[in-house]
Amino acid sequence: MTGENASKDFPIKAGMVYVCRICGAELSVIKGGHGRLAPVCCNAAMTLVARINSIYACPVCGSEITVISGFSGSFSPVCCNTAMLVKVFGKAA
Ligand SMILES: [Zn+2]
Ligand SMILES: [Zn+2]
Which end of the chain is more exposed for a tag (fewer CB within 10 A), N or C? Predict the structure, then answer.
């Protein structure tokens, strides 16, 4: 499953979204890193899209959530009776 050209490591950012053009599956990065993310679905490389999913963290228990679809600016999740903090600001495609 090695690519045709030797891809370099790149920053993998939380909130990044990839879609499968064949079946429509979506994935979102919850925790970033530095490497060579190259997800494959339906035997085809998934496409990085311009959208960034918001990630929210609970300051009490440390839970992290992301909104996969249906993003609205007024979304305000609550966990442990506390408003969750925005960790990654989302961006529409
Ligand atoms: Zn697929
Ligand atoms: Zn919590």
Answer: N
